[in-house]
Amino acid sequence: QVRLVESGGGSVQAGGSLRLSCTAPGFTSNSCGMDWYRQAAGKQREWVSSVSTDGSTKYVDSVKGRFTVTKDKAKDAEYLQMNSLKPEDTAMYFCKACGQYWGQGTQVTVSS
Hints:
globular; about 0% helix
């Protein structure tokens, strides 16, 4: 069973930065698109960003210009660089591979 592993979450003040990582031990995700989602307490899970196999990226409007998603094929890892964080970015962040495999999530908390 494929299981992704997210890391890099934490607590920061508004305006700060975090970089989330997503790896898939024992699984090569280079042939798949990768997505990031987030879920705030009491809310539905929300799509945040995607990177396709050709490197093209997409973002939800609320994070455009602040978040950057990259994929390191050599390390078989995906990263979500989050800058200018806002309290409304507070959520559990999940990565998803190949449209079906999920990680356990990493918590991001942004204080005002």
